[in-house]
Amino acid sequence: MTTAKVPEGGRAATASDEGYERGLGSRQVQMIAIGGAIGVGLFLGAGKIIEKAGPSLVFLYALAGVVIFFIMRALGELLLYRPVSGSFAEYAREFLGPFFGYVTGWTYWLMWAVTGMTELTAAAIYINYWWPAVPQWLSALVFLLLLFGVNLISVKIFGELEFWFSMVKVTAIIGMIVIGVGVLTLGFSSAGSTATTANLWSHGGFFPNGVGDSLMTLQGVMFAYLAVELVGVTAGESRNPEKTLPKAINTLPWRIVIFYVGSLVVILSVVRWTEFGEGISPFVAAFGKIGIPLAAGIVNFVVLTAALSSCNSGMYSTGRMLRDLAANSEAPKLFGRLSPRRVPAAGIAMSVVVMSVGVVLNYLVPEKAFGYVMSVATAAGIWTWSMILVSHIRYRRAVVAGRLPASSFPAPGGVVCSWLALAFLAFVTVLTALDSDARVSLYVGAGWAVLLSGGWAVSRRRVAARAGEPAPEYAAGAQ
Length: 479
Hints:
By secondary structure, this protein is mainly α. The protein is globular and about 70 Å long. The chain has helices spanning about 25-35, 40-55, 55-80, 85-95, 100-130, 135-155, 155-185, 210-215, 220-225, 230-235, 240-250, 250-270, 280-290, 295-325, 345-365, 365-400, 415-435, 440-465. The protein contains 18 helices and no strands. The two termini are about 30 Å apart.
């Protein structure tokens, strides 16, 4: 059980994770953190953005990785100040007011709900690689029910499944890097005669299509990092958050260097960037070039586990976020209940119902579904990351003023790094508005804002009544 501290405004913060089982051990939290930094975007989506950015994608992943590290250290400082399952929604609520906690919680739920839609159907498509006679809807339904059952049983089962999902992804990437380095240094396999690090600059330069075109791929780059913040949601169910969370966050730099920068350097040295395009997996291309038997099948299995891992994480995080919202009177009370196994079963069930809609969407617009969902999910992720950074800035201000105790895990660079990260996220948002394909996320965002405004108009009096305060004005509460 978490002991609530007194927030900046003087009202006791709700320990909305009360009643959870702290069933996630250090091994599981570490692997969830590692797996969260390796998404389907790296295995599949990178092919399209390599075509646009060329070898400069290595630099873009490294640059975005630095920003992600700033975000995660800001989150880490907040988590060690007050480890709660509501995580960033709780911090937005505490330091910016109820409205921002409400928006952040529901927006994070949206991010995972729409991501789960795509991952679920993607997993069914991967199954068709081996068994084309199996109806796609049937595979999607089986995966949906299987992961639903796993999340209902206990957080320990979720953690164990996520551990092995992440292990598959990590093993595949490390294996590819080791083999690729062997090809580059020893020259074996059919790729030995053409594999060279000179491929990083010999075919049109490091920025072959210009710096502008490279920067326009930043949204896709940020999409690949979605879920890295998932470790924050585990705070309320980690056995020893004071030790496991800092360790998980501090290993982020080497994870980015190995899994993103390292893998892309090797892949683009083995396979010329000009051979990539939409629908071409960098890993399939690299394994195929090297001449590894069953390369497509191996990568298909890895991407299948990545999709199931993402959907599994989506069910976990959305259930916890809905419970946090319900605990603060910002969602129906039903979602605030825990099952006898101490999991938010009603919230998970609600998310599963929404995710099942994805099967229909992917059937109707299969050629556009991934791009649309990527744009919407990235926009929701940018909002979530921004709220983490702003909450961190407000928290530091309260510490300096002596209103709150200092965290045992201060972020290096303090608020300066948080401001730099905010500026970078704003820059990515501007680029999104300039991209005709990605701009759909802004349209969806506008519609989502209207829905949230209507929901807040209904729930704000309930929130105020719960706090024993007068009903706030529309966006009031920011201190």
